[in-house]
Design brief:
331 residues, alpha+beta, D-Maltodextrin-Binding Protein, domain 2, three-stranded mixed β-sheet, 11% strand
């Protein structure tokens, strides 16, 4: 299982099998948004089969806790802090967070998208444009991101993401910024979407979508029967049956467009609608926090800089910008 820019790195080494004949026979170009199929290709040839789509920019909330606190679900960051204040006054932890660098980075990604918008996100966190990384918008993103920390609890450092989700499930906390793998925790606890928990786009990101697509690449093999088995597997992975069963179990959605969604829950239906809409509007964007947007060396360095800022009280947003801009040069 290789994904994102790592696919290009492996393909460059010449070890991945070309899947063009399967892709052509199965019409992958028509069944996938271009931004996704481009990631599955190297020099114009398919080298991977996409399995699913996880949406990263979600906010999960406990509606009962919100109601008791007299708070309303936020649609932008100003409203987020108003809700957080109300939750804090009601004696609950406003934001369930696990202080691990990838969770900090996941939060940062949603703040960057919500404060800066899709074009800013693309320039700063996909193209790593130096001017955008040091812009006034980036400073506002970092200031907003750091403010979120004020509404997390002191036991957050080192906490696993699923334990943070459990805090929202049991009413200890009001909300969590996390990708749609969090949904599996709610469902496993017997909770019903729209009733016991709510899934809304992270503040300010309703018209945008950061994706994390898992994919399978096949290594080049010499043997005919094995090559055929690889092709059959690739075709099956993109087939409607696998796409439905796999994603119903994983909490993600089918990557294949125009799939019937009647067996899926409301969160998945929203995710699919937004996936299709943003693929047309240009706001379907690769997740930097989940290995989809930039080479792994740059991702790791930026992630470390973001966490350092989150964890260092004395560091200013300007210092963090310099560190992130320097980190972006790591290729």
């Amino acid at each position: 299982q290789i994904k994102g820019p790592s696919l290009q790195e492996w393909a460059h080494e010449g070890v991945l099998a070309n899947m063009d004949d399967v892709a052509k026979a199965e019409h992958w170009d028509e069944l996938l948004p271009k931004v996704v199929s481009d990631i599955m290709k190297y020099q114009g040839h398919y080298i991977a089969a996409p399995v699913n789509v996880h949406r990263v920019n979600w906010l999960w909330a406990n509606p009962e806790v919100f109601q008791k606190a007299g708070a309303k679900l936020p649609t932008n960051w100003d409203e987020f802090f108003v809700a957080a204040e109300a939750l804090k006054k009601a004696g609950v932890i406003p934001v369930a967070h696990g202080g691990q660098n990838w969770q900090d980075f996941t939060t940062f990604e949603s703040v960057a998208l919500g404060v800066g918008g899709p074009d800013f996100y693309k320039k700063a966190l996909v193209q790593l444009d130096p001017a955008t990384l040091k812009s006034a918008t980036m400073e506002k993103v970092l200031t907003t991101f750091k403010k979120v920390k004020d509404y997390t609890d002191k036991n957050a450092p080192g906490r696993d993401w699923n334990l943070a989700t459990a805090m929202v499930i049991n009413g200890q906390a009001g909300m969590q910024l996390m990708g749609d793998w969090a949904k599996g925790e709610f469902l496993a606890a017997g909770k019903v979407p729209g009733k016991d928990f709510v899934c809304v786009a992270a503040p300010g990101t309703a018209k945008a979508y950061t994706f994390n697509v898992d994919s399978f690449a096949m290594f080049k093999l010499k043997d005919g029967p094995n090559q055929q088995a690889q092709k059959d597997l690739a075709a099956a992975i993109m087939g409607p049956q696998f796409q439905e069963v796999f994603n119903l179990n994983k909490g993600s959605i089918p990557v294949r467009l125009n799939m019937p969604m009647d067996k899926f829950d409301d969160c998945a239906k929203t995710s699919t609608k937004d996936f299709v809409d943003t693929s047309k509007s240009g706001a379907l964007l690769p997740s930097i926090a989940h290995g989809m947007a930039v080479p792994s060396a740059a991702e790791g360095a930026i992630k470390d800089a973001v966490s350092q800022f989150w964890n260092t009280d004395k560091m200013t947003a300007k210092d963090a910008m310099d560190k992130i801009a320097a980190a972006a040069k790591m290729h």
